[in-house]
């Protein structure tokens, strides 16, 4: 068991007084078999009215509503979690899915629904053709195929931090040969979907006390994005293609979704002049 303290502070600055619209915040770590949430606190300045709900994926969502004009917005999340995931996971994949290709059961395919369907248009099937290149032979090992795909994404795409809003399409990422962790996660998930797998995207935190990983700060912690693939028997298996990793022993999930826009930590609007927005800063600390 590892107990971690997470501090995530985001500050938005404006050149003049602005009226803030509702802000959607997804910052509360997601409890599960390998993660227990010990405490969670969310502070917002200027003062806001917070309302909590769960979305269709059971993510905890806070909506902040503001009444005062302001030149600065600060959102700080403090959480303590207990991680139980091991560094060398063993996946009990059902015999029917050990070899690729395999068929999901009718119930599984119905429940996966859009999670098993490509999201981005790809009329020339460039992404599908690229993904099929990792299928070594008919009846190849399913887990080996997914590991090869994750390694292939990491080999083809150089990590590059990108502060701009939005996410590149998978084909854009392939063409450019670089992307942020969210671009890389989207490419991997979408490529897996073209092969018939159910996939979902995850946002959260990356922690490594021994050495900085790709997408990590010098302290070994960062906001991060990765993906999960559903395999019968094993359930949802974590793949971090940015770091060529399988399993989530150093990952703290916050939100899951079908597309990356559904798992953004915070989104919101303001009313002001077109040049009112001055910039933002993000601080993330994950410590044991």
TrEMBL record:
Record domain Transglutaminase-like: where: 173-243
Pfam family, one: Transglut_core
A GO BP annotation: proteolysis
UniProt keyword Protease, yes or no: yes
Coiled coil residues, start to end: none
Molecular function per GO: peptidase activity
Keywords: Hydrolase, Protease
PANTHER family linked to this entry: BLR5614 PROTEIN-RELATED, SLL1233 PROTEIN
Name of the protein in question: Transglutaminase-like enzyme, putative cysteine protease
Species of origin: Enhydrobacter aerosaccus
């Amino acid at each position: 068991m590892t107990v971690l303290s997470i501090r995530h502070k985001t500050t938005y600055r404006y050149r003049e007084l602005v009226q803030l619209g509702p802000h959607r915040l997804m910052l509360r770590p997601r409890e599960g078999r390998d993660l227990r949430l010990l405490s969670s606190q969310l502070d917002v300045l200027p003062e806001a009215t917070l309302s909590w709900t769960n979305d269709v994926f059971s993510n905890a969502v806070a909506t902040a509503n503001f009444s005062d004009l302001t030149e600065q917005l600060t959102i700080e999340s403090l959480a303590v979690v207990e991680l139980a995931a091991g560094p060398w996971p063993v996946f009990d994949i059902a015999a029917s899915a050990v070899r690729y290709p395999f068929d999901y059961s009718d119930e599984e395919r119905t429940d996966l629904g859009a999670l098993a369907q490509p999201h981005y248009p790809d009329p020339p099937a460039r992404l599908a053709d690229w993904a099929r290149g990792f299928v070594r032979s008919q009846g190849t090992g399913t887990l080996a195929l997914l590991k090869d795909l994750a390694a292939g994404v990491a080999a083809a795409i150089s990590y590059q931090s990108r502060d701009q809003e939005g996410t590149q399409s998978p084909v854009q990422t392939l063409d450019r040969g670089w992307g942020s962790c969210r671009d890389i996660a989207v490419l991997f998930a979408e490529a897996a979907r073209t092969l018939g797998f159910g996939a979902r995207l995850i946002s959260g935190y990356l922690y490594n006390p021994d050495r900085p990983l790709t997408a990590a700060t010098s302290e070994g912690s960062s906001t991060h994005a990765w993906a999960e693939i559903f395999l019968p028997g094993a359930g949802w298996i974590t793949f971090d293609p940015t770091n060529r990793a399988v399993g989530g022993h150093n990952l703290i999930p916050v939100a899951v979704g079908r597309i990356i826009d559904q798992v953004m930590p915070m989104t919101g609007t303001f009313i002001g002049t077109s040049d009112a927005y001055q910039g933002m800063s993000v601080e993330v600390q994950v410590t044991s």
